[in-house]
Amino acid sequence: MSYSFSVPDSWGRLPFGLMWGHTISMGQFEECIAISRAFDNGYMLKGKYCLAKIPIKGFIEKIKKTSDLSRAISYQKKDPEYFELGICVPSSCSANKVDEVLKNVIRTMFNQDIKDNRMVDEQYCKIDEPIDLRPIDIFAITFISFIVFCMLGSSIYDYIKTKNGSRKHPLFLAFSVLTNAKKVFSVKKVDSPDVIYCLNGIRCFSIIWNGFNFICFDFHSDGNKITSPHDFH
């Protein structure tokens, strides 16, 4: 597929249900970063995916909200401030340049001048390149790998000892999934040191908290005048 077609094809578009709170259009991330084209002069064109944040607070505030519409866009107790749009540009374009171009497009097409808001930031842009691991990443991978190794070794030890009917050393069972899973997921009320009863209370609080989150959504409505969708700020 031609790169000249893939770049605009991977852009996000105005989504269905914008008035019902659907304020994000991711576009096609994989299609964008897969773009690669070598030119005769040695220049390599690659796709760069960015997630732009277009301010729409003023537009939403002026919409006349019906009861259903208000319930949809006010579930977070405040109106959405940004519309997130996935865009694809050449990797040689900086975030500052993309931000400038996007603002010029909005100014030209919608006659709206966005000065105070930065819509494209480099931290929300991605190109297809090798991952550069930080020291904290290496530490996390090493630590998690060590835990997984201990769990695997302890579980194998537990299984072999159980199968042979041999005596088990408590230290080598510390990471055993076979032994610890029984204690973690047990709900039987027995007088045994192998049961962690506080987990029952934790499960109870988790269920109550989930129910509380669902019940306590506050949907409210107000009446504002309908305005033009060209008002972005």
Automatic annotation (TrEMBL):
Keyword annotations: Membrane, Transmembrane, Transmembrane helix
Pfam family for this entry, one: NRF
Residues in Nose resistant-to-fluoxetine protein N-terminal domain copies: 1-127
Superkingdom to which the source organism belongs: Eukaryota
Membrane-spanning residues: 138-160
Database matches in InterPro entries: Nose-resist-to-fluoxetine_N (IPR006621), O2_lipid_transport_reg (IPR052728)
The keyword Nucleus is annotated on this UniProt entry: no
Cited PANTHER family: O-ACYLTRANSFERASE, O-ACYLTRANSFERASE LIKE PROTEIN
Protein name (Swiss-Prot/TrEMBL): Nose resistant-to-fluoxetine protein N-terminal domain-containing protein
Organism: Glossina brevipalpis
